[in-house]
Amino acid sequence: MGTGSEQVKRELLLDGLDCANCALKIENGVKKISGITECSVNFVTKTLSLHTTSDMDEQIVEEAKRKVLRLEPHIRISEKGKPSTAGRSTAGALQHHGHAHGHDHEHNHGSHDQHPHDHGHSTAGSGHVHEHSPHSHNHDHDIHAEHQHGHEGHAHAGHSHEHGAGQTKVLLARLAAGSVLMAAAIWSPLEGWAQLALFIVAYLIAGGDIVLQAGKNILRGQVFDEYFLMSVATIGAFAIGEYPEGVAVMLFYQLGELFQGMAVNRSRKSIQSLMDIRPDYAHILIGTGDETKRVSPEEVRVGDRILVKAGERVPLDGVVKAGHSMVDTSALTGESVPRELEPGNDVLSGFVNKNGLLTIEVTKTFGESTVSKILDLVQNASSRKAKTEHFISKFARYYTPVVVILAALIALVPPLLLNGATFADWIYRALVFLVISCPCALVVSIPLGFFGGIGAASRNGILVKGSNYLEALNDVKVVVFDKTGTLTKGVFKVTAIHPEGERTEEELMRLAAIAEAQSNHPIAESIRAAWGREIPTEGVDGYDEVAGHGIKVKVDGREVLAGNAKLMQQANISYTAPQTVGTVVHIAEAGTYVGHLIIADEVKDDAADAIRALRKLGIRKTVMLTGDAKAVGEAVGHDLGVDEVYAELLPQHKVEQLEKLEAAKSPKEKMIFVGDGINDTPVLARADVGVAMGGLGSDAAIEAADVVIMTDEPSKIAGAIRIAKRTRAIVWQNIGFALGVKVVFLLLGVFGIATMWEAVFSDVGVTVLAVLNAMRVLRVQES
C-alpha cells in the first residue's frame, strides 16, 4: 500500500449516532488512538472520517471501531463501500431511550447499502442517511443479524433524535401513562407508601430508561452527561420529598426530547434534500438495438451508452451521442436558465433532462462523476471544522464537570454557613442548577448551522470545502483575481472591424476568413467564428504560415496577407496602428492595406457587478493579476473598477505578488485568490481561501481550491461571502441565546426563584429553538 508516511482516508458510518454530545465523545476518543493523524465526526451525516498511515491502516481502523463501540455500544458501524458490522448490542438500532420496543427495530437502520430505488437515501455511500417510517425497508447486509439478536437486550440508542412513527407512539403512550399515574397519585386519597409507590411507578414509566442509561454510562466511565444530570436531579427531588416534581420534570424532559428530535430530524432532512442530487438508476443500452436495462449507476462502465428520458436525472458524466434536449442544471450550478444539449455536447451527472430523449456515452464511472465529487465535498466539509466549532467542543468538555462541582458546592456550603438555611432547600436549588446546565443547545445547533450554510451555498452553485473556509470568508478584506478565464471569458472574439478605403466590413472579413481558414491558432478560430459561414475556397492556393508574423495566401492570383505589424513592415505596406487594446490583425491584398480587425478576450457579463458587490460587502481592496500585456490588463482593470493591476506575470510571479499583498494586510484580515484552477494551483494553495472558477468538470480546480464556483460567475464570490456572514450571524445568535438563557436561569435557580419546570425549559426548550434557528441558514439565497 505504499510507504509508511502515505495517508489513507477511511470513512465509517455510525448508524444510531443521534446525539451531538456522543459525536464529540467519539471524536475525542478516536483522536487519541496512535496512528490516527486526523479525525472528525459529522453529527449530521453520522460519518466518522479518519486519516491513518497506510502501513497500519487496518489495525487502526479496527481499534477505532472498538473505541466507538466502547463509548456507544448501540451504534452499528459500517464502512463506505463495505458491508456493515453490528455492534456488540445489535439491538442498538432500537431508537431513542428504548422507545422502539416490539418489532419496530428493523426499520430504522439507515445503512449505506441501500436499494438503488431508495431515492437519495444514501448519497454516494457516505452516510447521508434518511430516516425511515416503520414501513420502509432497507436492504442491509446485516438485517438478518438484527433479527437474530434483536431481543438480546434493549440497548439504549444514546441521546437519539430519530423518531419513527412507531417509536413516537410508544413514547407518547408512556408519557400519557406516566401523566395519568402522577395525577392519580396527587389527587387520589392515597397517602404514605401507597402514594409514593404510584409516584415511583409513574417515574419509571416516564424515565426509567434515562436512569438505566445513566447507570450504564457511569460503568463505562462517562459520568458527566445529560442522563446523569437528569437522573441526579429527579432522584434528588424524590430524596427531598418533591415527588410530583421529580416525575413531572422527567415527563417534560422526555416531551422536550421528542420535539428536539423532530426539529433535528427536520433540519437533517432539509440539508439532505438540498443535496438530493444522487441519481437512482441508469437505463443502459444493450446491444445495437433500443433495448435497455435499468441498473444502479455504480454498475455502468466507461464507454457504455445510456438512455435518459424526459424528466429523469442524468446518472453519469458523458457525451451526448443522439438527441436534442433542454437540461435543468440548477441542482449543480444554481442556474435557473435551462441549458440546450445536442450531439457532441458534454453532459454532467445531476443535470435533469427536461424534454427530449438523450443517448449518452459514459466518460466517467459513477465514483468519478461530478455528482459523486460534489456530494463527497459537501459531506466531508464538516471534517474541516471552524474555530467556533472547536471552541464549543472544548467548552462542552470542561463545562459540565465544572457545573456539577458548582452544584455540589451550592448544595453543601450555604446550609453550613448561613443561619436558617436548610439542606433540603439548597439541595433542591443545586438540582435545578444541574438540569439547567446541560450544553445540548450549543453542541447540537452549531454543527447544524455550519452544515446548513455549506448546504445553502451548494444549492447556489458554490462548493465550500470546510466550515473553516466558510468562517474565514467573513474576514476577507482583500480579493485577488486572475484575469483570463476568471474576470474574462478566456475566449477570443472579434470586437471591431475597421476596413480602409473603399472596402466594406464584409470584404475585409471574407479575406481574413480565407487567410485563417487552415490555422488552428485561437485568433484564427475567433475570425472563422465571426465570419460564421462557409469559407470560399475557389481560387485559393499557396498557403504559407510565417511564424510570429501571420499568414500569406493567394486568392485569385492576388497575394493576401493577414497578420501583425511585423508582417506589414516586412512587405513594406503602410498600415494604421490603432489605439484600441487587444490583438490587431492587419489585412493587405496585392500590396494594398485593406484594414484591420481587433480581437480581444471578452469580459464576463457579471464581472463589473462582482467588483461592485464586493465593495458593498466591505472588501477593502480588489487586485487583478495577469500574464497578459500591461496595456490589456490595465484596460480591463480600469473598465471593471479594480483597485490594482499587475500584468505580465508568470505563475511564480503571481505567488510572489500574493505574498507581498499578504505582508501588506493586517494579520486578522483574510485574502482570497480567485482563479480558473488549472494554471493557478500554486496561488490557490497560497491564499487564505483559494476560489476556483468554473469548477464543474475541472478536476484540477476541485483539487486545488477551498471554494469552487460551479458556474464561472465571479459575482458568486459576493454570494459566498453573504452566505458566510449569514451563517456566522445565526451561529452566534444561538451561542448568545443559549448561554444568555442559561446564565439567567442559573442565577434564578441559585436564588431559589426558578423551579425544575423552568430548568427543563431552559435545557430542552432552548435546544429546540436553537435548532429551528439554525435551519434558517438553509433558506439563504446568495443574491
From TrEMBL:
PANTHER family: CADMIUM/ZINC-TRANSPORTING ATPASE HMA2-RELATED, CADMIUM_ZINC-TRANSPORTING ATPASE HMA4-RELATED. This is Cd2+/Zn2+-exporting ATPase. The keyword Transmembrane helix applies. It catalyses: Zn(2+)(in) + ATP + H2O = Zn(2+)(out) + ADP + phosphate + H(+); Cd(2+)(in) + ATP + H2O = Cd(2+)(out) + ADP + phosphate + H(+). It comes from Paenibacillus amylolyticus. It comes from the Bacteria. CDD domains: HMA, P-type_ATPase-Cd_Zn_Co_like. One of its GO terms (molecular function) is ATP hydrolysis activity. The chain crosses the membrane at residues 170-187, 193-212, 395-414, 426-451, 731-753. Residues 8-72 form the HMA domain. Residues 75-166 are annotated as: Disordered. Gene3D superfamilies: 3.30.70.100, Calcium-transporting ATPase, cytoplasmic domain N, Calcium-transporting ATPase, cytoplasmic transduction domain A, HAD superfamily/HAD-like. The keyword Protein biosynthesis does not apply.
